[in-house]
Write a structure and sequence with these properties.
Blueprint: E1 6-8, E2 11-13, H1 15-20, H2 29-39, H3 44-55, H4 61-77, E3 93-107, E4 120-132, E5 140-144, H5 149-162, E6 170-175, H6 179-189, E7 193-197, H7 199-213, H8 217-232, H9 236-244, H10 258-267, H11 275-280, H12 288-302, H13 311-325
Helix pairs in contact: 2-3, 2-4, 3-4, 4-13, 5-6, 7-8, 7-10, 9-10
Length: 341
Amino acid sequence: MEEPQYRRGSKRLRPFAARAKVHHRGCSRPLQRAITDLAADVSFAQAMDKLVEHYGVVLNESTLRRITEGHAQKIFALSEPCQAWPEHPGCEAVIAQMDGGMVPTVEPDPSRPDQRKGKRLQWKEAKICLAHAPGSQTPSYGGTLQGDVGTAGQQLFHCAMLAGFGQDTRLHAVGDGAGWIASQVDERFGAQGNYLVDFYHVCDYLSAAAHALHPHQEFATAWMTTQKERLKTQRANDVIQTLQAHLEAAEVADVDAPVRQCHRYLSNRIDQLDYQEAIARDLPIGSGEIESAHRYIVQQRLKRPGAWWRTANAEHMLALRLNRANGKWPMANGRTTGQEI
């Protein structure tokens, strides 16, 4: 862009830059907003093309990356989860879900002078959670990539607080059976929390066992129907006893012993299978909501084909996407629903 410039003594005057509120090699706040909106959803290269398509502005990929990651880093730095135990009664119940998924990361080898060589590729688990009151369509989201399970538990507690958790609230948590999720529910919420294993994960184990016991689909389906009905009527012990009678021999490898795997999975989680109470209270018995959130919050941006992230940058981008999912990203017309960056 050609810009007329003037001089007043030793000072250079740039009327356009002053009026547009931009500086040399800088971008106005509305342009930064547009850049971050685009790059938060698609790759930086695609965002560069979309910026030209929608706004007619040509910027290189590195500029888009710098601006987006700058805002993402500020959002991450300002995201401090609330950990104070509530003093208000709260709502009757809060539904909470948590899940983990892997994100590809890359770190350079600090011992090499050329940082392009000797890179270490690894997968890190992004742990995200949500919470909302029954009937609410607007959950609160939280998550962490570099943090441990304790940090994930803090995020879960914070989400529950935003959803209305109080001194009289009963927390209904659902997960895929991972031990760290159940332990965080117990640690953060104590007697006010209840953890339920996702019914459909249990059914995956039951299905494998059913086909091992009954090769014909008709009999396997009938057996599955019986076991699912038992689980939903608080008769999980009957299911375990049925499996007990058909356990594979000890010398059979675990990978080839689906009945044994199902028996162990249920036996180790016997106190997390109270589907009858959840159904009676019209509470979910599946964790599909958080699995869906993992796809559109984490995987859609951080798990793109060929993408490898520096760990800190991935953490910051996750914070940006969670911020947007929570409706805290300033709106395009200048108004804001949360903290402005």
